[in-house]
Design goal:
With 767 residues, the protein is of the alpha+beta class. The chain is built from 23 helices and 31 strands. The chain binds zinc ion.
Length: 767
């Protein structure tokens, strides 16, 4: 076709170009000049880029290209990592490879040669990738350029494939097989924090938890390799490849502390097993000042490295179903259950723990004070409905702290009435209970509540003690945080910081308060009330050496018919705060449908909260301060469990609230340390050796010049036991001597006596 460059508008037809007009010679020359300039410019630019790739970075790309045998393909970007608050890795990506073949490259081969090579490839790959040879042969027959054989292949298999290609270079195997570098998500701590982290799908896309919520941040930008092909459709030498490198996604630094998380999971799982909890449980630790979540455990979780694998128990339920369709349905339900974050996505009736809210609102409105009294005669009637106290003889006259500690429903109905529905609803909104909690996790549930005129006298009465409406565990934690932190509503969150691949901060998560909901004065009063509750009512929340505040709750669920008949089902919960004089953390524990026969929050959930606190408070930098009474109670006599079956020994230790460690896999206890009848501090651990197990040696730490609390912490860390002599309760006296010299190697569990004597009559250890 002739190039027409005549721009005279009058010679164009309407909408068409007149090709009949013949251009003059000058015009053609001018046109060629312009075209020439354009071509030269393009060539200069591409030569420059090609030169950069060939000369400057050529070596790198040659290496990459020859290793990977890449053609025209995407390079997947590594996903960003997830860290705990101390930069311990929680989720990362390890290199993986996609194995593919290029069936179109077989087309120019002669039939005999084609068959031989296809057979060789199918045989080799089936062995390395543990796949059926016939399946691979089928793939080689496809009429396409690129077909995936297997995804997420690890390094050892990828190396074997490379070796296979080299060994068969005479057959030019590498013309038909290739490896694309990708990444595979890896969770180094297996089940730890699985419901928080979530997991990813086949293409590394976040499907649950933080992986889903922060998917855009974590996903990087794919790179691409384009290879030139010669006239026969074969690849040109790799120096003609152009390549854009993949960019790694941003990483998330979370507020999760792996030790706190582990501690929550350990004690929650123990309680769920012991109390035969049917509907799972949750334990959460939150910083009350800024809403940072340090630990969030959900029982019955999963391993995010294998998210589609059910627990043995659940798999048994699936296997028991014979109908295939029904089987798939059951499996899907159970998988969704194990992935579901109960702390965020499930609502519950908070029960008596919610009395913190009712007291806060009434105190803030000056409708009650510490000296207000309330009477309880077992029953209390509201609008024709009779409400009962849990104490049949009634609590009589109580002040506010006593009513709270007694968890007396009639008293709190009266407080609700003083508040009235309008004010109750005003505070409900102020505390953010009419909305989803602002957590950075997917699937946050919306509370349900009696709004507007739907809150009549009976709804107000039941709401006052935490029944007939639903909130999430995180809502209950934010109420508690505001109650003790000076009155500020915090937003719970898990991400602290988003960083790029070089570790530079991209975004810091703000910890601003949402608003102040009660005054500092009201908050002070609430702290006193909550400490009174733990000291007098919820005594299972007591942690020796610490001032703890808390509240228990037992909410009744709608009765359920189960195999043994109709049962009332309960949720036992507890929220604790420590140190209550200067609150740092709140611990929430909830056990949903305990079937052990015990269901009171004070009996089953408060001990879990106390155990978590006992382990994490020293770790978080709060040293215990023991009272004289506590020092007295601290010492405990070790029972004799030698010869016991392991299970019986465990029971004995649990009953005495002694920690223990079983060494070896034998059936019976052959030796114990400390020996029976030895006195040790109750925070210690008894080491129980089973058949054929060996002593485990540890070094005695320096235990002088410390407070009693510090001695206990140091001993627990070192794996030894201590018992105090002298005046350990006096905060002005530090430990002066230890019965075994620091640095001595002793069997784990050995008891060291640590003495506390006034400096007037004892040697003070010097360093
Ligand atoms: Zn009562």
């Amino acid at each position: 076709m002739t190039l027409v460059l005549d721009y005279k508008s009058d010679e164009f037809g309407s909408g068409g170009i007149n090709l009949t007009h013949k251009p003059n010679k000058n015009m053609i020359n001018r046109a060629f000049l312009v075209l020439l300039i354009v071509i030269v410019c393009i060539s200069v630019i591409s030569t420059a880029s090609l030169a950069k790739i060939m000369i400057i970075e050529g070596e790198k790309y040659q290496t990459l290209a020859s290793e990977q045998q890449l053609y025209d393909t995407f390079l997947s970007a590594p996903r960003g990592d997830i860290y705990d608050r101390n930069m311990k890795l929680l989720a990362t990506s390890s290199p993986a490879w996609t194995v593919y073949i290029t069936p179109n490259n077989f087309k120019n081969l002669k039939d005999g040669e084609k068959k031989k090579i296809k057979n060789k490839i199918a045989g080799g790959l089936s062995e390395i990738l543990d796949m059926s040879k016939d399946d691979i042969l089928e793939l080689t027959d496809k009429k396409t350029y690129y077909v995936i054989v297997k995804k997420s292949v690890d390094k050892s298999a990828a190396d074997k494939i490379r070796k296979f290609m080299t060994e068969n270079s005479d057959l030019k195997i590498s013309n038909y097989i290739g490896l694309d570098t990708t990444t595979k998500r890896y969770y180094p701590n297996d089940t730890l924090a699985s419901t928080v982290l979530g997991f990813v799908g086949d293409d590394n896309q976040g499907l649950a938890g933080l992986e889903s919520y922060y998917n855009n941040e974590l996903t990087g930008i794919s790179g691409r390799v384009v290879a030139a092909k010669n006239a026969k459709g074969n690849d040109m030498p790799f120096t003609y490849q152009t390549m854009k490198e993949a960019k790694k996604g941003n990483s998330i630094v979370t507020s999760i502390d792996s030790y706190v998380q582990y501690t929550c999971e350990k004690y929650l799982d123990d309680a769920v097993a012991e109390e035969q909890v049917a509907e799972r449980g949750t334990a959460i630790v939150m910083n009350v000042k800024n809403g940072e979540i340090l630990g969030m455990a959900v029982s019955g979780d999963f391993n995010p490295n294998e998210p589609f694998k059910l627990s043995e128990l659940d798999q048994g339920k699936v296997d028991a179903v014979s109908d295939e369709e029904e089987k798939a349905k059951v499996k899907s339900e159970l998988l969704n259950r194990q992935w579901r974050n109960k702390a965020v996505s499930d609502t519950y009736e908070p029960g008596s723990v919610f009395k913190i809210f009712t007291a806060a609102a009434a105190l803030e409105e000056n409708l009650v004070n510490k000296n207000s009294t309330f009477s309880c005669n077992y029953t209390y009637s509201v609008a024709g409905n009779l409400y009962h106290c849990h104490l049949k003889r009634g609590h009589g006259i109580q002040n506010l702290a006593q009513a709270m500690s007694n968890s007396c429903n009639p008293a709190f109905i009266q407080i609700g009435q003083l508040l009235n529905a309008t004010r109750f609803q005003k505070y409900f909104k102020a505390f953010g209970l009419d909305q989803k909690v602002g957590i950075d996790l997917p699937g946050a549930a919306t509370p349900t509540f009696h709004s507007g005129d739907k809150m009549g006298p009976t709804e107000l009465a039941s709401s006052s003690f935490g029944q007939t409406f639903n909130i999430t565990p995180l809502h209950m934690l934010t109420i508690t945080a505001a109650a003790v932190n000076g009155g500020y509503l915090v937003e719970p969150h898990i991400a602290k910081e988003i960083i790029d691949a070089d570790g530079n901060t991209v975004k810091t998560v703000s910890t601003a308060y949402k608003r102040q909901v009660i005054s500092g004065k009201t908050s002070e009063t609430l702290k006193e009330l909550l400490e009174y509750v733990v000291q007098n009512g919820a005594k299972n929340g007591i942690v020796n050496g610490y001032r703890v505040g808390g509240k228990t709750g037992t909410s009744q669920k709608i009765s359920k018919i189960i195999s043994t008949g109709e049962h009332s089902l309960y949720i036992g919960s507890y929220v604790g705060v420590a140190p209550i004089n200067n609150p740092d953390i709140a611990v929430f524990v909830m056990l949903d449908e305990p079937m052990s026969g015990r269901y009171y929050g004070g009996a089953i959930s408060a001990p879990v909260g106390a155990k978590i606190m006992k382990d994490i408070l020293p770790y978080l930098g709060h040293s215990p301060q023991y009272s004289a009474e506590e020092i007295e109670k601290l010492s405990i006599k070790v029972p004799d469990v030698k010869g016991f079956e392991v299970a019986k020994a465990r029971d004995t230790m649990s009953q005495l609230k002694l920690s223990y460690k079983i060494v070896g896999n034998g059936a019976k206890i052959t030796k114990q340390l400390p020996e029976a009848d030895t006195n040790i501090n109750s925070g210690g651990t008894v080491i129980l050796y089973t058949d054929g197990s060996d002593d485990d040696a540890v070094n005695v730490p320096i235990l002088t010049g410390l407070t009693a609390g510090e001695v206990n912490t140091a001993a627990a860390r070192a794996g030894i036991n201590v018992v105090f002599a002298g005046d350990a309760a006096r905060s002005d006296i530090k430990s002066s001597s230890q019965s075994i010299v620091a640095g001595t190697s002793v069997p784990r569990g050995t008891v060291v006596t640590v003495s506390f004597f006034d400096s007037g009559n004892a040697d003070i250890a010097t360093e």
